[in-house]
């Protein structure tokens, strides 16, 4: 095949994304995307001194996951992050001064591109998910992840959609587990985050005394290289770690019909978590919510949320039934 011919047409790529039940890595699909230039240095110039939030964790591998509630947070520019991650002599001033590079990793994760670059909307077109059969989907519907070596996300599954991840700079190692392994991963809703179910197991260093069933899991380990796109199918668990000094990735979650049912489950979960949390000693509350959840929502708002989720689910059921129009109801 010639250099510029992609292995799949947009139609075929979409068919694979929407139906495949196994993780897959797409190669040679994004060679002409301007987003391949989005290394940390380039983004630092584009952001031009704008600060973003970094999550900091310890490089020591513990027997318990390093949940986001246990991390530290700093606001910093990408320039400051790059100076710190080059192992330049400890910056005596600046946001990273208290965090020795040899002991900590930093992660600007889950950053909505639409929000960071709201004053530069033309940059959204650098990301072309239309090549995967999603016309009109660009950087506006994507998120950005910038990490140092060791940066990681605790093992979790996403309640909604499937996930397409483009690796831009550095490599990341993905440990993926099928939905059938759910019970072996000891799922928990604390810390609570809308649409994320965490595992109690530290996948990189499992405590098999406490979590003996973890032995029964089947990990699919993938090292994602720059220019490759990973498909994470619906409800696949994943633990992700940066294995190079600086990593940059871009992802987009693709909505699925099954999300309607998941939204009902999520609405019920939110209601329960908020109800229990409001009955707790208020000073303990911070350990319940993941930092991405700003605050516990009121019972009234949760009821509205549940109503909307149930209505949308029933509408979707109705639509799929009328499509099948069968004489026997």
TrEMBL record:
Give a yes or no for keyword Zinc in this entry.
Answer: no
Q: Which SUPFAM superfamilies match?
A: Clavaminate synthase-like
Chief location category: cytoplasm
Coiled-coil stretches noted in the UniProt entry, renumbered to this chain: none
List, alphabetically, the GO terms of the cellular component aspect.
cytoplasm
**One Pfam family per UniProt:** Cupin_8
User: Which domain of life does this protein belong to?
Assistant: Eukaryota
State where the protein is found.
Cytoplasm
The record's listing under InterPro entries reads: Cupin_8, HSPB1-associated_protein_1, JmjC_dom
SMART domains reported for this sequence: JmjC (SM00558)
According to the entry, every stretch annotated as the JmjC domain falls at: 105-269
Entry keywords, A to Z? Cytoplasm
> What function does this protein fulfil?
May play a role in cellular stress response.
Q: What is this protein called?
A: HSPB1-associated protein 1
């Amino acid at each position: 095949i010639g250099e510029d011919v992609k292995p799949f047409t947009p139609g075929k790529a979409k068919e694979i994304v929407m139906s495949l039940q196994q993780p897959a890595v797409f190669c040679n699909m994004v060679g002409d995307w301007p987003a391949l230039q989005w290394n940390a240095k380039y983004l630092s110039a584009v952001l031009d001194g704008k600060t973003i939030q970094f999550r900091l964790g310890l490089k020591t591998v513990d027997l318990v996951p390093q949940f986001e509630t246990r991390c530290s947070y700093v606001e910093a520019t990408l320039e400051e992050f790059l100076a710190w991650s080059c192992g330049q002599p400890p910056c005596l001033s600046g946001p990273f001064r208290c965090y020795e590079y040899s002991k900590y990793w930093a992660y600007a994760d889950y950053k909505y591109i639409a929000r960071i670059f709201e004053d530069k909307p033309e940059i959204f077109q650098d990301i072309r998910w239309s090549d995967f059969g999603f016309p009109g989907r660009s950087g506006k519907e994507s998120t950005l992840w910038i990490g140092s070596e060791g940066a990681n996300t605790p093992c979790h599954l996403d309640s909604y959609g499937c996930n397409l991840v483009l690796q831009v700079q550095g490599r990341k190692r993905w440990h993926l587990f099928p939905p059938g392994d759910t019970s072996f991963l000891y799922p928990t809703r604390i810390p609570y985050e809308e649409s994320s179910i965490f595992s109690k197991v530290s996948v990189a260093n499992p405590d098999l005394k406490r979590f003996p069933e973890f032995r029964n899991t089947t990990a699919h380990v993938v090292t994602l290289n720059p220019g490759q796109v990973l498909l994470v199918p619906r409800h696949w668990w994943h633990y992700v770690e940066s294995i190079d000094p600086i990593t940059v990735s871009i992802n987009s979650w693709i909505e699925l019909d099954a999300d309607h049912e998941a939204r009902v489950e999520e609405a019920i979960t939110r209601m329960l978590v908020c109800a229990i949390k409001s009955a707790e000693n208020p000073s303990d509350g911070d350990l319940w919510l993941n930092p991405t959840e700003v605050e516990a929502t009121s019972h009234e708002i949760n009821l509205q949320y549940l109503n909307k989720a149930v209505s949308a689910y029933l509408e979707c059921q109705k639509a799929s039934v009328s499509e099948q129009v069968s004489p026997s109801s």
